[in-house]
Write a structure and sequence with these properties.
mainly alpha; 12 helices; 77% helix
Length: 309
């Protein structure tokens, strides 16, 4: 009797985390991803990802925001912020929400609170489309600075600032709405839309990069047959910004293409599928770093002439 009672009680207990790999639901089920996060592989990857965000990315984002506040305080009245800086500030805010999401996801898994895990996943996925949007806006501004300098000068008008703010607001709305679809449905169902969005972003940034390169290497009016004037450092720096963003986006696109292909391969087991899906967040780290690092590079170059004087 005591043995039967013990065996029935033991059978009602949830399986340990180490045995979750053998009992993972099918990948087509939304329960697969929740069970994956609760497994040893998923939990270890998310904890490592959270510690990486807190130890390395969080100080970087606070540094960007502090420099932004100082620049706003030194800026004379009526002079708007540059569009690239505004995109960087919004990107940093979204990344801060993503860091909070990774911490909440780990807390929800450890506390066995599914609602907390879902909130964390929601915050994590907010930046899926936001990263691509702000990369496009930044590259568009750099493209205008090189290819259409006259139009670029008009971007500081009140109307251009209003259009920029409306675009940024639309980016936030798109990110929040798409994150809700991803986190409350099957998360893997968002792979195809995210892949298409990343592909379109890569095409646009590649076009900006190619157009800027053509403008930089072709001779200007009256320069044929003579020694060409040296390319301005501001245009060269803008081209380097576009090129760096393009490399980061191509890296993310290749990862988003190869990992789902390996995930859906018939020879991939449940444990490997769980590791592939959770590991996808690591390939988004370069996309999270590129705009803040470019901002710090611009801030250092702007401060350099003042120190040399």
């Amino acid at each position: 009797m005591l043995a039967d009672s013990y065996s029935s009680h033991h059978a009602s207990l949830p399986p340990p985390l180490s045995s979750h790999h053998a009992s993972l639901p099918p990948p087509s089920s939304s329960l697969f991803f929740l069970s994956c996060l609760e497994s040893t592989t998923g939990l270890a990857s998310m904890v490592a990802f959270s510690f990486t965000n807190i130890l390395f990315l969080l100080p970087l984002y606070f540094l960007v925001l502090s420099l932004g506040v100082r620049q706003l305080q030194r800026r004379s009245g009526g002079v708007p912020c540059s569009h690239a800086d505004v995109c960087t500030y919004n990107m940093v805010v979204i990344e801060l929400a993503s860091i909070l999401g990774s911490a909440l996801t780990c807390g929800g898994i450890l506390a066995d609170a599914h609602w907390l895990t879902k909130v964390g996943i929601y915050l994590l996925t907010v930046n899926l489309s936001a990263q691509s949007t702000f990369h496009v806006l930044t590259c568009g501004e750099r493209y205008l600075a090189i290819v259409h300098p006259v139009s670029y000068r008009s971007l500081q008008s009140a109307r251009a600032v209003w259009v920029r703010n409306a675009t940024v607001g639309g980016s936030w709305l798109l990110s929040v709405s798409s994150a809700g679809f991803v986190s409350f449905q099957n998360p893997f169902a968002s792979t195809i839309p995210s892949l298409c969005l990343t592909a379109l972003t890569c095409v646009f940034v590649f076009y900006c990069c190619l157009s800027a390169l053509c403008v930089l290497i072709r001779p200007g009016p009256g320069e044929r047959g003579r020694t060409r004037q040296r390319v301005g450092p501001s245009k060269l720096k803008a081209f380097h910004n576009i090129l760096v963003i393009l490399v980061v986006l191509v890296f993310r696109f290749v990862a988003m293409l190869l990992i789902p292909a390996a995930f859906l391969s018939p020879g991939t087991g449940p444990r490997e599928r769980c590791g592939l899906w959770v590991g996808l967040v690591w390939f988004c780290l370069p996309s999270s770093l590129v705009l803040p690092l470019l901002f710090l590079s611009r801030a250092r170059q702007q401060a350099r002439p003042k120190t040399n004087q």
